[in-house]
C-alpha cells in the first residue's frame, strides 16, 4: 500500500467520523467534501475556516451602541482607592477598605459580570456611575449612585442598607446583573437568583454604570467580564465582553478533526489491540499497520495545531473548546494509561514553539484551577472529580509535569487550590442529610431516621475520600523520583525546590495571605500523607538492602540537628532561638566548628551536599542500585535518617505547619 493510499484512507476515516454540525449552513454540513490528498489538507482547512468566518458575520450593534469602553474589559487600577494588588481579572485588598471599578460602562440593555470569591469576608459588589467618589471609608453602595450586595454581612447597600441575599462562602460565584431599560439591579449566588435588590436605579440620558467592587484587607476575588464562559449565564443578559463566537466555531471545527487524529494515533500505536477505547469506536476491519501512518498523522496534526495556535491565545477558547475536548478524551481512572491525553500533549509539544506551549499550558492549568475551585458543591462531587481526574491525566505526561513544576505551579497557578475540598453549606447539607441525628435519647421511633442519617453521612464520607485519594495521587505524581533517567532533574527535585521557594515567599511576606487557612491545612495533610508513602518506601528498600530491619518509622521521623548547622537547607535568614543565624554562628563559633568537623569527612560531606537535592540523579548507579535510587535511596552514611530530599520535604512541612496550619487549629 502506497503512502498516498494510506493518506487517503486516513483522511476518509477522519472526515467520515466527524460529529454532525449543528448549523443549518449547507457549507458546513458537506461531509463528503474533504481533501483526497495530504497536500490539499492545509488549503482545505483554510477554506473551511474562511467559510465559518463568512457564516458568522453579524452585527454587534448592542456592544457598539449600548456600551462604552475597550472591547475587553478590565479593572482600572488607576481609579482604585486604597492599596491593592490588581491585575486584569484578580483583585486583592491591601488597605483597610479598597475600591476599584472597570474601564467599561453600560447605559442601555441587560448586562452581567461574575465575581469569584477566593475569600468570604466583608466585600461589596455592584455598579456605580462616573460621579461616585470613593475612599477607604466609602465604597460601592455608600454613595447615591452606586448599588452593591454584601454577602459577608448579608446586606444590600445604597447609602442605606437592608437585609438581602444569603451569606456567601469562599468558592462562591456572585453574578451581578443590571437592566438599564427597567432600572433594576439583581444578584445571583452560584446561579440561584437572590431576587431584585434595587428597582429604582436611575437610568437614561447621561447616566452609565460601571462594574465596581470594594473589598476589605486581604480579601481576594477574581472578576469575569466574559473573557471566559460564565459559570451561571442569565437568559437575555449579555456579558460585558462580547462572546468570541467566530473563534469558538473555528476552534470547535479544528478540535473535532484533531480528536479523530488522536483516536487514530492511539489505534496506530496499539494496532487496534487496546480494548479500552472511547465512545467513538474505530472500525476493527481497518487496521493501520503501516509505519508511514505515524508520519501522516503527524503532518495532519501539525497543520491543525498551526491554525489552532492563534485561537488558543484566548482564555475563552481554552476553557470552552480545548478543555472540553480533553474531558471527552479522558478516562476517569487512576489506573488507565491515559493514552489519548498523552498523545494530544505529544502533538502540542512537537509543533508549538516553547513560549506558545508555556502560554497554552499555563492557561489550561489556570482554567482547570478556576473550574475546580469555583465549582459549586453538588451531592456527589461529580464535577470536582472530573476536573481532578483530568489534572491527573495531564500530569501523567512527563514533559508537561516537569514544565508545570518549573514554570507554572506555585508561580502562576495556585497548586494548593487543587488540593482543597470546599465544605458543603447548610442548604446542601440538608439535601445530603435530610434527616438529622436525634438530639434526645434514642427510642424506637427514631431508629429509622437515625439509620438514614448514618447512611447519608457514610455516603458523604466516601465521596470526600474519593476526592482526597485523587489529590494524593496527584501529589505523588508531582513527587515522582524515578523520572530522572531520560530528562533530569526528577519531578521530586523540581517540586521540593519550588515548595521551598513557596515557603520562603510566604515566610518573608505576610504569612500565606493568598490562601484561606483551610486550604493550607488540606494541602499540609495531603502532602504529609504523600511524604509518609515515599518515606516508608525508601526505608523498605533500605532494610532489604541491609538484610535487617533498619527502618525509621514515619511517626518517629525527624530532621537531624546537623541540618541546622551544615547549611544543606536554606532557612531564609529566619530568626532562631537566641537570634539570627549570623549572630549565633559568631556567638557559638567554636561549638559550630566542632559540630561540623565531628560529622562526616570532607569527601562524604561533599557527596552529601552534591546529592542533598539531586539524590534522584543516577549517573553513578546502575542495576539494583539504580532501582533503589529511583525509590529515593541516597548513597550516604549508614546513620542517615532518610534520603536528603525526603528530609528536606519533612523540614518544609514543619515550616508550613508553623506558618499556616497551627494558628488555624488554635482558633
Write structural notes for this entry:
This protein has three domains: about 1-60 and about 240-350, no CATH class; about 65-240, SPRY domain (Jelly Rolls, Sandwich); about 520-665, no CATH class. The strands form three sheets. Strands 2, 3, 6, 11, 12, 13, 15 and 16 form an eight-stranded mixed sheet that branches. The protein is built from 20 helices and 16 strands. The protein is globular. The protein is an alpha+beta fold.
In the CATH scheme, the class of the largest domain would be Mainly Beta
User: What are the low-pLDDT stretches, counting only 5+ consecutive residues below 50?
Assistant: 22-28, 272-288, 600-641
Structural class: alpha+beta
On the 0-100 scale, what is the average pLDDT? 83
Tally of domains: 3
Instruction: Give the termini separation.
Output: 73 Å
List keywords for this structure.
3 domains, Jelly Rolls, 12% strand, 667 residues, eight-stranded mixed β-sheet, alpha+beta, globular, 20 helices
Compact overview of the structure:
This protein is an alpha+beta fold and 667 residues long. Helix content is 45%, strand content 12%. The protein has helices at 3-16, 41-55, 61-65, 245-270, 292-308, 315-329, 339-351, 354-373, 382-395, 398-407, 415-418, 426-432, 444-478, 491-508, 517-546, 581-587, 589-597, 602-611, 623-630, 644-666; strands at residues 67-68, 84-86, 90-93, 97-101, 105-106, 110-117, 123-128, 146-150, 155-158, 160-163, 173-179, 184-189, 192-198, 210-216, 220-224, 238-239.
Amino acid at each position: 500500500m502506497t503512502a498516498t493510499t494510506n493518506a487517503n484512507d486516513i483522511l476518509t476515516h477522519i472526515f467520515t467520523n466527524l460529529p454532525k454540525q449543528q448549523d443549518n449552513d449547507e457549507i458546513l454540513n458537506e461531509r463528503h467534501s474533504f481533501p483526497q490528498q495530504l497536500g490539499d489538507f492545509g488549503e482545505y482547512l483554510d477554506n473551511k475556516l474562511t467559510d465559518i468566518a463568512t457564516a458568522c458575520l453579524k452585527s454587534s450593534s448592542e456592544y457598539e451602541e449600548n456600551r462604552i469602553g475597550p472591547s475587553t474589559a478590565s479593572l482600572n487600577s488607576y481609579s482604585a482607592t486604597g492599596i491593592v494588588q490588581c491585575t486584569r481579572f484578580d483583585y486583592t485588598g491591601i488597605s483597610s477598605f479598597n475600591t476599584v471599578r472597570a474601564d467599561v460602562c453600560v447605559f442601555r440593555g441587560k448586562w452581567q459580570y461574575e465575581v469569584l470569591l477566593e475569600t468570604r469576608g466583608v466585600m461589596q459588589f455592584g455598579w456605580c456611575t462616573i460621579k461616585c467618589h470613593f475612599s477607604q471609608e466609602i465604597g460601592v453602595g455608600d454613595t447615591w449612585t452606586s448599588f452593591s450586595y454584601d454577602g459577608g454581612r448579608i446586606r444590600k447597600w445604597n447609602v442605606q442598607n437592608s437585609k438581602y441575599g444569603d451569606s456567601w462562602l469562599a468558592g462562591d460565584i456572585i453574578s451581578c446583573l443590571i437592566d438599564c431599560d427597567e432600572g433594576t439591579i439583581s444578584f445571583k449566588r452560584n446561579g440561584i437568583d437572590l431576587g431584585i435588590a434595587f428597582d429604582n436605579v436611575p437610568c437614561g440620558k447621561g447616566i452609565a454604570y460601571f462594574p465596581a467592587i470594594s473589598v476589605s484587607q486581604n480579601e481576594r476575588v477574581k472578576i469575569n467580564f466574559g473573557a471566559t464562559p460564565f459559570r451561571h449565564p442569565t437568559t437575555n443578559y449579555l456579558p460585558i465582553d462580547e462572546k468570541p463566537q467566530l473563534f469558538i466555531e473555528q476552534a470547535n471545527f479544528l478540535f473535532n478533526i484533531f480528536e479523530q487524529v488522536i483516536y487514530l494515533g492511539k489505534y496506530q500505536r496499539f494496532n487496534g489491540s487496546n480494548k479500552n477505547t472511547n465512545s467513538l469506536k474505530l472500525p476493527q476491519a481497518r487496521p493501520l499497520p503501516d509505519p508511514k501512518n505515524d508520519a501522516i498523522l503527524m503532518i495532519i496534526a501539525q497543520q491543525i495545531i498551526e491554525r489552532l495556535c492563534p485561537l488558543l491565545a484566548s482564555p475563552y477558547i481554552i476553557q470552552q473548546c480545548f478543555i472540553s475536548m480533553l474531558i471527552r478524551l479522558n478516562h476517569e481512572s487512576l489506573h488507565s494509561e491515559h493514552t489519548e491525553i498523552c498523545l494530544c500533549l505529544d502533538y502540542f509539544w512537537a509543533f508549538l514553539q516553547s513560549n506558545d506551549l508555556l502560554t497554552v499550558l499555563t492557561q489550561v492549568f489556570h482554567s482547570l484551577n478556576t473550574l475546580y475551585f469555583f465549582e459549586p458543591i453538588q451531592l456527589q462531587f461529580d464535577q470536582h472529580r472530573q476536573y481532578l481526574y483530568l489534572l491527573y491525566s495531564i500530569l501523567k505526561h512527563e514533559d508537561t509535569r516537569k514544565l508545570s513544576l518549573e514554570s507554572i505551579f506555585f508561580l502562576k497557578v495556585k497548586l494548593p487550590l487543587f488540593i482543597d475540598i470546599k465544605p458543603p453549606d447548610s442548604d446542601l447539607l440538608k439535601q445530603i442529610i435530610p434527616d438529622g441525628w436525634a438530639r434526645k435519647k434514642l427510642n424506637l421511633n427514631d431508629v429509622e431516621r437515625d439509620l438514614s442519617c448514618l447512611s447519608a453521612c457514610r455516603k458523604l464520607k466516601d465521596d470526600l475520600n474519593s476526592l482526597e485519594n485523587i489529590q494524593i495521587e496527584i501529589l505523588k505524581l508531582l513527587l515522582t523520583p524515578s523520572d530522572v533517567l531520560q530528562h533530569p532533574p526528577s519531578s521530586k527535585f523540581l517540586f521540593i525546590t519550588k515548595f521551598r521557594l513557596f515557603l520562603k515567599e510566604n515566610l518573608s511576606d505576610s504569612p500565606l495571605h493568598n490562601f484561606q487557612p483551610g486550604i493550607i491545612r488540606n494541602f499540609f495533610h495531603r502532602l504529609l500523607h504523600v511524604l509518609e508513602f515515599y518515606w516508608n518506601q525508601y526505608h523498605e528498600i533500605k532494610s532489604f538492602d541491609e538484610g535487617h530491619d533498619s527502618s525509621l518509622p514515619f511517626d518517629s521521623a525527624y530532621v537531624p540537628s546537623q541540618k541546622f548547622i551544615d547549611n544543606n537547607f536554606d532557612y531564609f535568614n529566619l530568626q532562631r532561638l537566641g537570634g539570627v543565624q549570623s549572630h549565633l554562628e559568631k556567638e557559638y563559633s567554636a561549638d559550630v566548628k566542632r559540630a561540623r568537623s565531628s560529622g562526616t569527612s570532607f569527601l562524604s560531606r561533599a557527596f552529601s551536599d552534591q546529592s542533598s537535592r539531586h539524590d534522584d540523579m543516577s549517573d553513578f548507579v546502575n542495576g539494583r542500585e539504580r532501582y533503589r535510587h529511583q525509590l529515593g535511596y541516597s548513597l550516604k552514611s549508614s546513620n542517615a535518617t532518610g534520603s536528603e530530599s525526603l528530609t528536606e520535604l519533612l523540614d518544609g512541612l514543619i515550616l508550613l505547619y508553623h506558618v499556616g496550619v497551627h494558628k488555624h487549629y488554635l482558633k
